[in-house]
């Protein structure tokens, strides 16, 4: 299964449209795809209570992430999409990523002391960021803010889609370059999941 997550505050906007295109491509290829629009979930940021060290999942809160943890564990593929806000991902995407903290274990024999229980399972990811800015440099850390934590958790990021010069809701569907890149990234994700 592929878990598709978008973190835009705008219903029916470009992040929504991008996720819909991924869902359509992947399901056409016979992959099950579960869509998540983070604005529809209410969840708290990680507060570092460390209960998850013992419980192996976040038990501090019973919230929207409680509903998503089974989907995260079940899925081998992840599509994560965010608009660019102030040179970074949205607070919803950041909070979503932060709550993956419960998948880390402290291990004295590891070089950095931490290991991810999601690692070594053939997990693949595609990340996408949609910006009105004209250059990738103007997107700030948005792509890094998604890629780096996912790689640390054990995901192989097989495609990155920085989409530039788009603001008006739904306009990504009219951008032939972006539409083709989404199709290629979806195919790459499906192929990589089938071969792992």
TrEMBL record:
- The NADPH-dependent FMN reductase-like domain extends over 2-111
Q: Which domain of life is it from?
A: Bacteria
Q: What InterPro entries does this protein map onto?
A: Flavoprotein-like_sf, FMN-dep_NADH:Q_OxRdtase_AzoR1, FMN_Rdtase-like_dom
Molecular function as annotated in GO:
oxidoreductase activity
* Pfam families given in the database record: FMN_red
Q: Which PANTHER family match?
A: FMN-DEPENDENT NADH-AZOREDUCTASE 1 (PTHR43741), FMN-DEPENDENT NADH:QUINONE OXIDOREDUCTASE (PTHR43741:SF4)
**Any idea what this protein is called?**
Flavodoxin
**Source organism lineage?**
Bacteria, Pseudomonadati, Thermodesulfobacteriota, Desulfovibrionia, Desulfovibrionales
